[in-house]
Amino acid sequence: MKSLSFFLTLFFVTCLATGGIFVKLSELGPITTGFYRVLFSVPILYPLLKLGKNSHLLVKDKVVIFIAGMFLGGDLILWNISFHHTTVANANLLANLVPFTIIPTAYFFYSEKVSRNFLCSLIITLIGLIVLIKGKDNPTQSNLYGDALAFLTSIFYAAFLLIVYKVRQRASAIEIMYYSAYGSIVILLISSITMEGITYPTDFEVLWPLLGLTVFSQVLGQGGLSFVLGRISVNLAAVLVLTQPVISAVFSYFVFHETLSIQEMLGICIVLIGIFLVKKEH
Q: Which candidate, 276, 237, 263, 218, places its Cα nearest to that of 6?
């Protein structure tokens, strides 16, 4: 049973790692692509919601999850745009810096302790980020802009987690994904119309990357991980989730011929060590 959970987790992480690939393959704008990713997930999540255990969420709980979903929508906007300015590997790595936002914030809002291990992990990660950024063969303003957006992605995702923090004990992963989707849809639709105009898939050539993004990254990736992570040890989960930037780097190499310098790979390794150490404790 444990081996099954291991391979399922690795499969779901692999699915999640395809997100940047489908975003870059999409012929629609990055924000519009994010909008369809969430919109198409609703009819898939709805039957799963009805088939699952009903936790009888209060209206105020659903409102909280809806508001959290608005931050998740902001997360997708920044992340999807970042893929067009930096490598898929960097975007995935920097988006994984969530613990370094959520732990200090939880200290101020929920009085949760910040350990010495966290501070050591933060220093290691910052060193890795400096090595990563300095290691670009031909750095451009666009690269740095993409990296910055990917980092901001982690802040928006941390805000999402902090908002649903108190609700998670009463709501299932499917309920959080389903009700937060509506908050994301609102933000993504407004941003899409404002910044990219009204566009929609006109043929299968345009549609298939959106469907791939929905099924693999949104439903199997995010949904599958939420379902299975509680069934394996925290340390093993931390290791498997951290393979996402590596898997995405392999995908992007074969699909887009994206390469990383030796120094960038070293920076990624150092950052992954820092993230692992902090996730190991939490």
A: 237
